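Moderator note: this is an archived Q&A kept for reference. The question asked for a predicted structure of one protein chain; the sequence and the answer are reproduced below.
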Amino acid sequence: MILLSIDDTDTLTSRGTGKLARAIADTLAKDYPVFGVTRHQFFVHPDIPFTSHNSNAVVHVDAAGSTAADHIFAVAQQVILDDFVEGSDPGVAVAWPEQVAPALVVFGQEAKRSIVTQQQARTLAKNLNIRLKGLGGTEDGVIGAVAGLGLAVTGNDGRYLQKGRIRDIACPCSAGQLFAAGVDEISTLDGRTFTEGTITAREGKPPRPCPVNGRTVLFVESCDGVLKEIQRD
């Protein structure tokens, strides 16, 4: 697996980073299988410049080796630059899981609860031989790009923006549709699981399951027999 992480590619009036990440995934899918695209939430604070939610996106590509990593890095840069949004500060990073040392996982976790810096991100990437580049503006996107690697590699953070055929489904939908599309489990936060029923969420929008220990889990709450997707970051 190779992880491609991008951040700070948008403005308040432009398409979002998630949409761009899906476009990159679709481009990469011409050459490699793409496992999915995840979204990861960072710390929200007045001293941190961000567009709307301070999150990034990571594309999980089923590939290996330096040649593939170089190609993925180049493709991502080209797609971002071809759709560059004036006023954005994009950053892109590429690594395979073995490069994501414990220090980088901790950096990702710190980025969820405190202010981290561009210098920290660049130093980590340099010491771990991780491909990293800023593509415009202040280049602050390198912070989220590096932090996203540390979060995505754990398999226990964020939610899927794209996986299997999940984006082809619009809520309300059946549990059977979700399982057929790529969801492994439907569960409440207190551990009750469901194999049937209708799930409601954002009307006309696809569900947003989470990666949990290698499984794709949609978290719901059950109220009067109705299953409603829990809105999670």
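Archived answer notes: The mean pLDDT is 88.
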